[in-house]
Amino acid sequence: MLARARAGCVVGVEARAVDVEVHLANGLPGFEIVGLPETAVRESRVRVRAAILNSGFDLPPRRAVLNLAPADLRKRGSSLDLAIAVALLGACRSCSPNRLEETLLFGELSLTGELRAARGLVPQLRSARERGLTCAIVPKSQLEHAGLIDGLDVRGAHNLASAVAHLNGALDLPTASGDGLRVAVQPAGDLAEVQGQETAKRALEIAAAGDHHLLLVGPPGAGKTMLARRLPGILPTPTREQATELVAIMSAAGLPIRPVIRRPFRAPHHTASAVALVGGGDPVRPGEVTLAHGGVLFLDELPEFARPAIESFRTIMERGRVVISRANARVELPAGPLVVAAMNPCPCGFDGDPTRMCRCTPARVDRYTARVSGPILDRFDLHVRLAKVELRSLRRGPTGESSAIVRARVEMARTALQSKGVARTRPIVELLDELPRDARDLMIDAAEALGLSMRGFARAARVANTIAALEGSGRVRPDHVAEALSYRIFDRNDEGGSSASGRSSWKGQTT
Question: Helix H segments across 267-351?
């Protein structure tokens, strides 16, 4: 007798289809699983057998062979338990096969037959919808999370017995509703609470509107972390499709899913390794750049990160994807956060501070800034130098525009930029052709004087387009170009020539 159930397993943050095939044959009673099962899947034999018996079902004294197809995909995780148990009961004629071909079965089984939550529910539901399945049975505790996935009839089961009863048509399980999860903005402080730093707040708005990476340079206590934490609040509210992608990443990573979905804000410690930031391991798990996808990744004390960790961002900051290659697998993960980095101007942090003297020698400053390579600095669209805020200038209550007002301008600017097609990957020739003659001439003259690289030139052109969109202008004016170039402080040279890193150009400058 042969039976088949539909299931899946997570690779990276994506789900792969898995078919559980069961064959009962004559011979000594036994339970064998083939198809590259790893430890948690092999141990399911014990959990499934106990769950079936404790749920009131009988297993015939025959030899059972389970095949997990495709055979060349390594199967990981405990979410295959329910599919294995139902396929085995189907082969024993205890479960009707009528609905098995169109139903995804997901969940871990306890020894008593209780259906427990497992990692990777949302990616598996998205995969099931793409491969044409119409139904799904998941743990009742995860039914709320399944409400984000449209196009599937998702039911929540408390245990194995209720799942089998539903498949037999004897019980109607509760259905997932789309009202369980809400989408909202980030409530981590309002931009109006930040006093002073007007240029930095302007740079935040430009970064949010054009999805530009931002580097903040300033002394301790200047407000770099405060500004970065308020950036998610001025990003556009996620659409339902974007929220589904965010939930899928959290689900695949095993992170708790809260009732309100917001754009993520991740701030890893500077001791994090390259694998922790980019992803990797066995099995491949998403890193911080993937967990911050669609939100903000804040790298505080950028020069204190290990050099391999920083250099791993070279391709990620441009492509928005990370590819992890192993001997037996190649996994591609989404990695499109808005990267915000912060650093001090010197090791002591007080260069340019009018109240405290910097005691760092030029050689020490050069060693400190050399920890961040020129190619990495070149990939930040906006470089902003912050000055220390005077205590006498502080006022009680909000002193500037609220995050809601800024977010409205950001959303309008993003709509305008999308209609123009100004993307990170657009060729530099196209960006030049679209600039008016006066703006193009200014851009070229300034690029030659500052020694901008082609990448820096293209990023400055994109920033100029974003500034024009924020002002509602249909064309890029010379003043937009001038403002965009003012944010390339690492590309300046004191002698007016080209500089590979421009490290001496920002020492002592303030916004």
Answer: 274-278, 288-291, 307-311, 313-319
Which residues are within 8 A (CB) of 241 and not within 5 positions of it... i.e. 6 or more apart?
Answer: none
Domain range summary for the chain, segments of one domain joined by +:
2-167, 191-505
CB 460 within 8 A of CB 212: no
Residue type, position 187, single letter: P
Which residue in this structure is represented by tokens 């080209």?
Answer: 498
- Write down the H helix ranges in 150-190: 160-167
User: In the predicted model, what is the mean pLDDT of residues 429-443?
Assistant: 85
Number of helices (H), then strands (E), belonging to the chain: the values are 19, 20
Report how far residue 151's alpha carbon sits from residue 173's, in angstroms, rounded to the nearest whole number.
17
Rounded Cα gap, residues 118 and 103, in angstroms = 17
Q: For residue range 111-142, what is the model confidence (pLDDT) as tens digits?
A: 999 999 999 999 999 999 999 999 999 999 99
pLDDT at 505 over 60: no
Lowest mean pLDDT among 165-174, 255-264, 363-372, 490-499: 490-499
CATH classification code of 2-167? 3.30.230.10
CATH 3.40.50.450 fits 191-505, yes or no: no
Residue with tokens 């505080």: 300
Total-model pTM: 0.88
| Helix (H), strand (E) at residue 265 | strand 265-266
